[in-house]
Amino acid sequence: MPKPHLQCQYHILPHKNGCLELQLSGDWVIGNNLPSMNDVQTQLDQDPATTHIKISSTELGMWDSRLVSFILILTKSLNDKKIAFDISGLPSGTKSLLKLATAVPERTGVRKTRQQKSFLEILGSGAINTISETKAILSFIGEIWLSFFRFIQGKARFRYQDFWLVIQECGPNALPIVTLISLLIGLILAFIGAIQLQLFGADIYVANLVAIGMTREMGAMMTAIIMAGRTGAAFAAKLGTMQVNEEINALNTMGIAALDFLVLPRILALVLMMPLLTIYSNIIGILGGMWVAVTMLDISLIEYYLQTKQSITLVDCATGIIKSLVFGLLIAGIGCMSGLKCGRSSAAVGEATTTAVVRSIVSIVVADSIFTILFQSLGI
Amino acid sequence: MTTEAHIIVNDLTMAYGDFIIQQGLNFTVNKEDIFILMGASGCGKSTLLRHLVGLKSPAKGSVFYQDIDFWRASEQEKSLIMRRNGILYQSGALWSAMTLAENIALPLGEYTNLGKAEIQELASLKLALVGLSGFENYYPSEISGGMQKRAGLARAIALDPEILFFDEPSAGLDPISAKLLDDLILELRDSLGATLVIVTHELASIFAIGNNSVFLDPESKTMIASGDPKLLLKECDDSRVRQFLTRGKNK
Ligand SMILES: Nc1ncnc2c1ncn2[C@@H]1O[C@H](COP(=O)(O)OP(=O)(O)OP(=O)(O)O)[C@@H](O)[C@H]1O
Ligand SMILES: [Mg+2]
């Protein structure tokens, strides 16, 4: 059992000729309460003639780095006051630790102090950041195009093995969650529609509502949001971690463009998979609607099927698929870009992932609105 | 000097899954030893360290801390033992989202009742001891590789632990810093009574500070020599150990 620590303290004994003696006693260890340095200060104020201070440790019990740190700080403050400090009375171990602590003097100009920024400064640097970020986004888009052209010419270097892995990750592996969400969306649409349409006996039009709703809007949109949270975040985390470990630098210095090697396969894979997932999501959503219609509304399977077939055209499906292509591009691009721009710490990876998901979802919704307006004005 | 046993390794077998790294390890680290783990790259030194500090459970055998069998002890006993250890990882393993001062302050804040200012003072002292005064507010990614190693060291000694495990502390250091590091290690032992277990390939420091050692061999997958490295150099007949200790000059 460890013994309880003896109280640690110091006594100040004034001597002749401007000399003070600092007598240490008790256990000077981390678990113990240390006396404050103020007493030395008060004594010095009372005795302005003091020219040097001597330390004695005959009464000292246990000690550890707490004592070393106390002496180090005292030395500094006495140095500032130009008072000589005689530490020869300390245990020899303390003296050698002190010597080691001062062996490498502080390099000049390395110390950083963190300052509070003023409001104007924050505003200004925010504005500058926005501009440089916009530039970065534009140049990233440009570089992706260049990389894409290299790919078409067969000059881009990437491993097909990786490409298939990404395909599997963002295609088949996403099916369970896409199934669940789409089914539920189909159910919800049908439910809401059924209650309203029943009011004027237009039950059968539930089929139209679900079919149009899924193919034109919800299929592509929900799949995109799932993929943003699932795959976009994974891209950002993976590339961000590679950035932290300098793996991206290692690729670049080998003459392998990170953009070709890492970003291009991911964008291609997601752009390929998104339309397929969307079509799948549409079908599942319609099945969900059918389930509600058949069990709740006395509509037969055949009726529902025929009504659905009548209500959607190829154009409806095409609009959803066009959207999904763009969403795929946005999610993969934003995810990869956040990852590549990641700082070099664990917190930065977290930030990159968050940014990726938030930006993807915002841009998905914005893009969707633009599409809606566009299709409306084109009359599609 | 006392010769009380601090860590006893008893018929230890280490394996990753079915792949055996080392087997039949038996050695004792005494209090206030500077115990060197040596052997060729990839022979399992870091893995052994991981077994000693409680990160990986042995495939067979046991690790005793004084008279407590670590891997059969209760969670509470385990965490008490682990808390008294200070560990420097081979790759530094600093928390990258915290400044150097915060890295050192974290264990101090968790396990002591010191105030903020006192913790800052201690953190500065530990950084000064490894030659990094003034770098309190730097993030790990803003300093060099060797500096990261030293900052990891400062964090390992934050709580003045009883046992220190250093995985290649001098890798990436210039000769002068390496010498200062050896002095620091000796001082931690002499003044604070710490026991040190060190993985190192630095022959100069093996002979300068080590007073006990084991030599792991990757071929036979067991220890083939142990004892004071200076005596091993003089007396060991095994050609693998001799080659290692003389940088391959004694074929
Ligand atoms: N997580 C792991 N899973 C499987 N095998 C591993 C793992 N970590 C290490 N190994 C294997 O264990 C062996 C020993 O590794 P270890 O890191 O202990 O070597 P070391 O002696 O510390 O080498 P070095 O001096 O290069 O650091 C190596 O052959 C390695 O392949
Ligand atoms: Mg190792």
Question: How would you explain this protein's 3D organization?
Answer:
The complex is a heterodimer of chains A (380) and B (251). Chain A has 380 residues and is an alpha/beta fold. Chain A folds into two domains: 9-101, 2-Layer Sandwich (Transcription Regulator spoIIAA); 145-378, no CATH class. Chain A has helices at 38-46, 65-80, 92-101, 119-152, 160-170, 175-198, 206-244, 247-253, 258-297, 301-311, 314-340, 346-378; strands at residues 9-14, 19-28, 52-63, 84-86. In chain A, strands 1-2-3-4 form a four-stranded mixed sheet, with helices on one face. In chain A, β1 (9-14) and β2 (19-28) form a beta hairpin. In chain A, α6 runs antiparallel to α7 (206-244) and α6 (175-198) runs parallel beside α9. The longest helix of chain A has 40 residues, at 258-297. Chain B is α/β, with parallel strands linked by helices. Chain B has a domain at 1-84 and 195-251: P-loop containing nucleotide triphosphate hydrolases (Rossmann fold). Helix content of chain B is 38%, strand content 25%. Chain B is built from nine helices and ten strands. In chain B, the strands form two sheets. In chain B, strands 6-7-8-3-9-10 form a six-stranded mixed sheet. In chain B, strands 2-1-4-5 form a four-stranded antiparallel sheet, covered by helices on one side. The radius of gyration of chain B is 18 Å and the shape is globular. The N and C termini of chain B lie far apart (37 Å). The mean pLDDT of chain B is 90. Chain A binds chain B through residues 30-31, 34, 64-66, 68-70, 72-73, 91, 93-94, 96-97, 100-107, 110-114, 244, 343-348, and chain B through 95-97, 108, 112-114, 118, 121-122, 124-126, 128-129, 131-141, 157, 159-160, 180, 183-184, 187, 190-192. Adenosine-5'-triphosphate binds at residues 16, 21, 41-47, 90 of chain B.
